[in-house]
């Protein structure tokens, strides 16, 4: 799954999470997230993997672009 900046921002919104909070959870720098979300640079594969893992563990499901386009949603907790 390739994370896109819009998904990252939307996922943080669903989680009510700041760039700083996500950076801390994922183990990356805040500037990595800020620059990615502002389209200043792409993510290194390792950073992307850390962000995706952190978002998924927090309950976000990343939707691929195969169906209706890339997106995010919160998983239902049972």
Q: What descriptive keywords fit this protein?
A:
globular, 434 Repressor (Amino-terminal Domain), 4 helices, mainly alpha, 78 residues, 2 strands, 10% strand
Describe this structure in words.
- The protein is mostly helical and 78 residues long.
- The chain has one domain (5-74): 434 Repressor (Amino-terminal Domain) (Orthogonal Bundle).
- It is built from four helices and two strands, in the order H-H-H-H-E-E.
- It has a two-stranded antiparallel ribbon with strand order 1-2.
- The chain starts with a helix and ends with a strand.
- The relative contact order is 0.21.
Summarize the structure.
The protein has 78 residues and is mostly helical. It is built from four helices and two strands; from the N terminus they run ααααββ.
What topology emerges from the helices and strands here?
Elements: H1 5-15, H2 19-26, H3 30-37, H4 45-57, E1 60-63, E2 71-74
Give the ordered list of helices and strands. Answer: HHHHEE
Q: Would you tell me the overall average pLDDT?
A: 92
Strand content: 5-15%
Q: CA-to-CA gap between the ends?
A: 25 Å
Strand order of the largest sheet: 1-2
Count of separate structural domains: 1
Q: What is the strand tally? A: 2
Shape: globular
Structural class: mainly alpha
The number of helical runs is 4
Overall CATH architecture: Orthogonal Bundle
Q: What proportion of the residues is helical, as a percent range? A: 40-55%
State the name of the first-level CATH class: Mainly Alpha
- Rg, rounded, reads 12 Å
Q: What is the CATH topology descriptor?
A: 434 Repressor (Amino-terminal Domain)
Uncertain stretches: none
What is the CATH superfamily label? Answer: lambda repressor-like DNA-binding domains
Reported for the largest beta sheet, the result is:
2 strands, antiparallel
